[in-house]
Sequence to fold (586 residues):
Amino acid sequence: MADCSVDLAPRNPRELRLANPVIAASGCFGYGLEYAGLIDVQRLGAFVSKGITPEHRSGNPMPRITETAGGMLNAIGLQNPGIKGFLKKYPPVWEGWRVPAIVNISAERVADFAMMARLLDETPGIAGIEVNISCPNVAAGGYCFGWDAAMSAEVTRAVRQATTLPVIVKLSPGAIDIAGVALAVEAAGADAVSLINTLVGMAIDIRRRRPILANETGGLSGPAIKPVALRMVYQVAAVVDIPVIGLGGIMGVEDAIEFFMAGASAIQVGTMIFPQPTRLMTLIDGIDAWLDEAGFQDLSGIIGLANAGMLARRTAPAVAAAG
Amino acid sequence: MAAVREFESEIVAKRSVMDDAHLVDLSAPSGLVAAMRPGQFVEVLCRVDGSYDPLLRRPYSLYATDPANDRFTLLVRPYGRGSEWLGQQRPGATLDILGPLGNAFEIRPKSRHLLMVAGGVGAAPLVMLSQRAVARGVAVTYLMGAMDAGSLLPASALPAAVEYLVATEDGSQGHRGYVTELVADYIQWADQIYSCGPEPMFRSLRQVVRQHRVTREPRVWVSVERTMACGLGACLGCVVETRRGMRTSCVDGPVFEMDDLLW
Fold:
């Protein structure tokens, strides 16, 4: 048995300690309860809730999802009960759970991110916050927060000031300079970054001559996006000191190992859960078995192994070891 | 809700039906079939290990169950990549199945006469429901519509006690036209109406019912079909808009009362 435990908030006294590096991703695991009858949710490293917004949202019209080659597009539209409804319903259940529950928050105004973070800070049953910066910024004419380093940092700073909970900032692959955004949110107080969110895409019904999704565009996820996700994790892990959580198209153990070698300290699994939920469990065991077989005592032994930039920084004496 | 399982299932037998479709008999873990109810569905992974195409599972309504032998049956018609793959699998092949999922058609204790309105492969859950109803001594009339005679379910698929009437668009068997044109005669007779099929059929069903129904009775229950991902109410990709708000067709449905649906 290799030691697969990991602290995703080493800078934060409150810590975000996971028994293993497998996290169920936001939007793909509901609020955890949906899967409680099917798998042992408590065995997960952690799970991230569906995205919560300041107010209740009914989401987008149908169709909301469509399958693509090696992936799927979704435009759910953040259907959720809003922060107040959410707080009443889910954290009281999670309080009795062993698995760390991370809450994903989305907003279109910086002050709303801070408001939600403040409410979560006082709530038992929550292990951390994941900040979704792939939302339009109303104050910037709808330009996505996550595409811009300064705007991403502004959201991070506001959340940081509102809570002492571990804060993970979920980066958008739409950013032109993803490493620059990562450095900016690190400087603004993020405990960790997770990447990547979905890529914006679309599909057209040629018979009806219009986009398949009612929202026209949607987020592309699944194995099709893995190479892009891996490249971005690699670039970010080479420059930041905080833990990097890798996600995007992970379908099995070898995919996960690739992300670790690119520099991820933990992984999130999203789209895979839809068709193969019990694989979450085999993934946890499989990573452990792979490390054993390859002769590693612990997970940290492979983090960044394939990332020359990260290794170079790690051996530099002035820089604390990441992961 | 009965426990949902992701399980390995063997194709035990397979036979042709409705021209290009198949009835596929599948094995299940001990005891699971007994919990399966008419209207519920399973999601089948329609690909081999190591392939991601098609990525998502495909939902199939239960056609029949055999709890004594831990078996259940699906009606598979090849009209997409998933069902084409599944239709090609032979007895002995192993499938990865998630289920049973969703809510069910309920037969109210006082119901004596049930009307089924089926369109195409929508016939499947209504066959299982008819079997349960007949076993309880409830009278069933089963109306089925299809393009042509070959696409109809054979009468032998239903219990002998069921009155089976058909409609074909080309007139090759039964009433020439749509199945919903047969419904009016049964509205006063039926205590409840159950339907599964394409959405245009639901729309004409709603029209007929509105024209002939005096009170809120008989209630009409429809099984809706949506593109689905998780099947467990987590992704919110398959919602339907109801008078009670957005509901998932995988957990809150697939069976809804027609009057509750906003479409």
In short: Chain A has a mean pLDDT of 95. Residues 231 and 262 of chain A are 8 Å apart (CA to CA). Residues 6-315 of chain A form a domain with the TIM Barrel fold (CATH 3.20.20.70). The first strand of chain A starts at residue 6 and ends at 7.
